[in-house]
Amino acid sequence: MTRGIGPAAGDALGPELFAEADGVRLCYQSVGDPADPTILLIGGVGSSMDWWPADLCAAIAGPHGRHGRRVVRYDHRDTGRSTTCPRGEPDYTGRDVTEDALRVLDAVGARTAHLVGLSAGGAMAQELALEHPDRIASATLISTTRALSAPDDEDLPPSAPELAGLWDGPRPDPEDTAALVEAAVAEDRALTGRGPFDEARTRAMAARAVARSVDPAAGLNHFAAEPGEPFVGTLADVVVPTLVVHGTEDPLFPGHGPALAAAIPGARLLLLDGVGHQVPPPGSWDVLLPELVRHTA
């Protein structure tokens, strides 16, 4: 079931709609012709859809739908305007969060879709590709690492020393919206590392995410949720066409992109020069978009 609440203030993608299934409401937006193939954007842990910039969504769809793609972004539960639990009391598992992607696809009437997952969203895309290959036309895994075991499970490089303690220490007051925005900007700056960092753009996304959220601090529930029933299989069992996109300056998962691509049969690797652990910035779109259009053809 889908219900709309009208256009979101200051947003170019039109009305916010709700997928309602299994007792959960998931807020989403889309751009492009519903008759075109669907690309579903899956955000990182604790992230609302605001961290997929509207101009990137429109660029993937293409000017006037030129690329022939419908692009859908959504709020994970406990983010944005989706179902929100009390802080520290998630009533769901990690598997539930992963499978919410299928609930959104059902709501938009997409039997199959191309998944584009960022960071933890890339891990979710791996899991969905493993268990639901009939629903997944392709997977694009951005700034992520292995969510499933690989036949040759060698150790991967650790995160950069500069990230040590990033998530330690006290959190901002959940009622202090300005502090929440500043914390989000600081985290994004650290994860970008030596990649291009647009503070004004990041601040605008963070401010919108905080303003839209039922509870801006509830995203931390993702870390408190039990994992749920495990996904059974290895990366060698993934059969959907896969594109791995990784920044050469990613400080969280340095060098993990090539290892991930090597573990998935037939996967292609696209390295974004100078990019950190971040949503691909506008300066990389001339490289990213042609590859993404080709991959989702």
TrEMBL record:
Pfam families, sorted: Abhydrolase_1 (PF00561)
Ranges where the AB hydrolase-1 domain occurs: 37-277
Signal peptide: none
Name the record gives this protein: AB hydrolase-1 domain-containing protein
Coiled-coil regions listed in the entry: none
PANTHER family: AB HYDROLASE-1 DOMAIN-CONTAINING PROTEIN (PTHR43433:SF5), HYDROLASE, ALPHA/BETA FOLD FAMILY PROTEIN (PTHR43433)
Species whose genome carries this gene: Isoptericola hypogeus
Stored Gene3D superfamilies: alpha/beta hydrolase
